[in-house]
Amino acid sequence: MLRHAPSSVKAQMRVRALLLLWIALVFAALWTYGMPAGAASAGVGFVPPAARPVTSGEPYLHASMLDGNSVRSVHSCTLVELSGGRLRAFWYGGSREGALDVAIYTAVYDPAVRTWSRERALIDRANSQDGLQRCVQKLGNSCALLDSSGKLWLFFVTSMTGWSGSSINVTTSPDEGETWTPPRRLVTSPFLNLSTLVRNPPFQFADGTIGLPVYHEFLSKFCELLRLDGDGNVLSKQRLTQDRLAIQPAIVPFGAQEAVCLMRPTYSSPKRVIGSRTTDGGRTWSAAAPLGLTSDRSGVAGVRMPDGGLLAAARVMRKLTLSVSRDQGTTWQTVAHASEGLVAEDPNERTTYPCLLLTKAGEYHLVFTYNRREIRHMHFNQAWLDLP
Amino acid sequence: MTAHALSACFGLGGCTLVALFFLTLAFRFVAVPVWARWGFAAVAAAALQVPLDGLSGAEYVRSWTGDVSLTLAALLALWCWEQLSGRRVLEARSLTRMSGAVLAVAVCFYPFALGWSMFDPYALGYSSHALFAGLLLLTLAAWYAEEHVLVLVVTLGAAGFVLDVLESRNLWDYLLDPVLSLLALVWLGSRLALRWPGRSKPAAGAAREAAAS
After folding, report:
1. What ranges do the domains of chain A cover?
2. Chain A / chain B CB contacts < 8 angstroms
3. Which class does domain A59-66+73-386 fall in?
4. Residues 98-117 of B with CB under 8 A from A
5. If we measure between CA atoms, which residue out of B17, B6, B70 comes closest to residue B41?
6. How many domains does chain B have?
7. Do A27 and B132 touch (CB under 8 A)?
8. Cα A90 to Cα A104: distance, rounded to the nearest angstrom
9. B114: domain range?
10. More confidently predicted of B192 and A155
11. pLDDT band per the 50, 70, 90 thresholds, residue A297
């Protein structure tokens, strides 16, 4: 206890009364202001997927590489649709994964002329250290969202040690990626804020808050879903798995109350994509379990098709494979291999970290890492998917 | 002051206190005049803010520890005051009780928060009146037991959470952190070692105990 100079009982009682008053004041403030608006409301519902035209006409597949490739090693590309149907990609690259020269790059795709702009280094060690006021050794996965107000969000991972020591950072752009705010750290774990990572794209809930699927790798591996307010503050966190079952969750909303979560199996899981579902707007999720989609324990991406199906990209027998489910993930049918139509095939190819996007115009885009040397891009329509 | 500047101020302040705690530990064993202690601490605190290769010493500490809890920052501030002024502020018995409470909570909290089961107590820290109520009960119990330091540090943590002074928006991060848990463990370990059969209390420790009683 604090040593009190006044020795009289009266003085001690006065100190204790003041302390009690202080306790009352603090807890009244905590009760009144300690709960941010909307924080407690779990299960706020999803934005129902907008009706997308089923692209008709001749099937087409346009395959390309992201322009530039000024660095030796590239990985973990993610896509976001901008205004006018353009796409912006983000990925990280450098002399090798985890090297000090790794930066997050970006480029823009114009679907009208089917070309990518030159790559541009967006975030490197130096400018992330300046913004975060911390030492940064590694830059890693990123994911992006263009919210309903037109603000572009970029979440990215930095680490001081290995990937299991990662933390998430956020930066936003008011002009679809031309200028960015200084990055800011998200605090998502109580143990030195270690080991929360992003991989698959965030989404908006019906109330405008942002759902950010994340995963944890330190000591145990599990998936979680964060909900963030419009200023990027974490409002709540929900655990989706436990027991080293899965990482890298990808959430695919199907309706106002329904969504499917596809997850990458870990090395202690069966070689199948792990899945979970919600039917109450995200308030509760079913117990995660292996789905009928085989996987090499590599990353998985998914998107809801205009006809209500679920299209997923996952690596099966070393091939990045597109599969469709008509029952929200229970059973699957392989429809295509991503390598089809690509030039300069390598018999030892490693196609990893897919990211799938369905644009407002109803066109599909798939990007993935090819042998850690290239980011490849496939732009196709429903008719190409429907080819026998 | 923007929220970012406020959290940087408190975050770096807490990390400066962590560094000062280790730097002023020597004063427990070496006799140094009070004015020299304060001078050393002032120079060290200032030096920790000077950038070297783009980052200051406090920012390097922050790179590893993140923002330390306000509970720890308040205790370290009291500890440093004690080391620098030579005046006793913290009573050993009180520190022992508080360390016990911190360790008990940490042992129950961290395994679940780090994925032991689907239950995540850390998630409660974002928005839970149940957690607020539990904390109020703990604070009132500490007040009743006249553990006034515990009352002060817990209420400071809660007040800091209301005012959003750290980067985190989670109440747990204002109350508990791994550095605090580790220091509590070291303190309890050192007290147990002193009480080990056959060990006599060091003269300084015995004198303090006598002064405290």
Report:
1. 59-66+73-386
2. 152
3. mainly beta
4. 109-110, 113-117
5. B17
6. 1
7. yes
8. 7
9. 3-212
10. A155
11. confident
